[in-house]
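Q: DYW domain-containing protein, please. Structure only.
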Amino acid sequence: MASALIHCSLYNANKKASPEQNKPPKTTPVKRQNTRKSPFIKRNRPKTSLELLVRPNDLNVTRDLCGFVESGLMDNALNMFEKMNHSDTFIWNVIIRGFTKNGLFQEAIDFYYRMECEGIRSDNFTFPFVIKACGELLALIEGQKIHGKLIKIGLGLDVYVCNFLIDMYLKIGFIELAEKVFDEMPVRDLVSWNSMVSGYQIDGDGLSSLMCFKEMLRLGNKADRFGMISALGACSIEHCLRIGMEIHCQVIRSELELDIMVQTSLIDMYGKCGEVDYAERVFNRICSRNIVAWNAMIGGYALNNYFSESFACLKRMQEDDKVIPDVITMINLLPSCSQSGALLEGKSIHGYAIRKMFLPYLFLETALVDMYGKCGELRLAKHVFNQMNEKNTVSWNTMVAAYVQNGQYKDALKMFQHILNEPLKPDAITIASVLPAIAELASRSEGEQIHAFIIKLGLGSNTFISNAIVYMYAKCGDLQTARGFFDGMVCKDVVSWNTIIMAYAIHGFGRTSIQFFSEMMGKGFKPNGSTFVSLLTACSISGLFDEGWGFFNSMKVEYGIDPGIEHFGCMLDLLGRNGNLDAAKCFIEEMSLVPTARIWGSLLAASRNHNDIILAELAARHILSLKHDNTGCYVLLSNMYAEAGRWEDVDRIKSLMKEQGLVKTVGCSMVDFNGRSERFINQDRSHAHTNLIYDVLDILMRKIGEDIYLHSLTKFRPLHVVKKRANSPEHHSVKLAICFGLISTAIGNPVIVRKNTRICEDCHGAAKKISQVTKREIVVGDGKVVHHFRDGCCSCRDYW
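A: Structure for DYW domain-containing protein:
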């Protein structure tokens, strides 16, 4: 009805107005005062100069028109409008404002064009509502047309109009155009500054937001509650605790400390800056807490690994204030489930969301994908992702990360390729999420190509991306390049330090990792849960037993960090390395968290290294009961049965794998040559230089005194020994790759080999001896540990 009435007189609009009609009035326009107040609300007041120009009988009609608009009765308002004299700009403004106020944004724009066609002159009250309609519709082209018209008629620098232009460009996502309008304004009011501070913050550019806020104060403007809320949000983005505390002081001086919106923003800022104690203090001072304040406090606990406190806060919210959780509560709680491995609680939240009909909701669905991915339930993560009606870049990034976290690197790369083919543009999080997959599958040269692609995208200086690049080079076996890139980073955060600590940890240089931790603390960085995962990994791989327990015990006592599943897993690795299998079993029984496949996997690996088949069977039963990816578990258990001569159990395991459709991963090793990756499998004779490789291998085997028939014969049935000699470990892929690396790289350079499965004992021992007789450093990355072989020794100290 509204659209039809707009165009009911288009035949008149198509008539060209005479030049005299198009000329603006020669009289000086009447100045309007208090432009922020609506001229359409009835109230007892003196007649304005505009109303004095209207005939008495028209004034009552105009007031009725305003009444219809204020009541949202736009059909009635349009019917009355059509009966009125259309020459008055005021009544056109009333209708346009009514359309905008009632969410009829396209109708507002159409009515403006009808106004133009009928030759009615627009004023500075017309354009703000039309501009707002363009912003709500994300209509950039229409908005730019209106902007051009404003410049043409001399309203392009009007403060009131410019504020609406800034808001429109920010809503559409063109912050550069908003900046241009703002910079060209000769006079700016508080609304102008607040719009830019908020716009930068919403765009995720916390630094620019804070700089704009600081400039506003420098020029003598006093911040109000809206400016402070936006500035606190910017502090949350950039983790600027000091500036956040300064703004808190301004809040107190401005007597806004009891404003619930400001208090909630302070809770959010302190929570995201890691100061949970300060957040609690602000929260406890709130007299009447609403759902937003409770959600901010729950989110602060979850972000800082206070898992039990986040759920306790939920309970208090329901019992003390009788507040019902909403969808944001669910989103804020899910990270607690992710970090603590609380799958049951995560599923409960999912069920609650379904019962309350919170789904579909993009942010909640994305949080569920993240939770299931981090809890090892990749199947459920894929199910939620595939059921999503709407997906944004964050959703795709989360699914890529879920694949990486669960070791499905090829699927992660396929999804990344899918993102590149979508209209979506990959962002810094996309690249950082997929880089670990590239690190696991790609060679160093391929990693360098990805690095070049990142620079081409303009993300080379991004701290988040830089951290991932450091990890990628470390996983590719090039610790020297990783260290050099880390040293060259201009802006380092706590993740940067965590990454370099982990880089040296996986290479077996635990002492260096601890030195980096000391340096990090000396520079004022506060460690988080991931810092201790890196430290405990370093202690586990390097066998630093006392240091590992010292760091584990200090987590809660000195830093207030509750240990998560990964921390417990690292301690189990450390106990297993030390041979304390009984202590490891007791450790699992006394854990405060429910053991996951990661925990039982650590016990299984320790049992394998110390040949405790009874404990290995116990760990395997628990892993199989969790319905986790059981391929590695079956293979490891089968090897243990073979070494013990329990051939019936070997056959049983193989039958179980066949029934479940599980296939043992084919081991392969890769080495870089002329910018590409050369791939080898066991007994490989497909390479162009096969004869030369095998000649070098034969020479090396004789030099190091290896007997090809004395390797782990207990793994084979007596009747199959002769048959298995053809598959001797002498021809394993690692040895073939090492030999090719020796003949294809310059003397003095390290030979870097990548392996997709754990290096076997025979190849590990051979690599040590080869490094001794050739006087070359050999680096072999086997997925978990990067082994550095020098002068007959390995950085892992023969435990991996």
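A: Brief note, in case it's useful. The first helix runs from residue 2 to 6.
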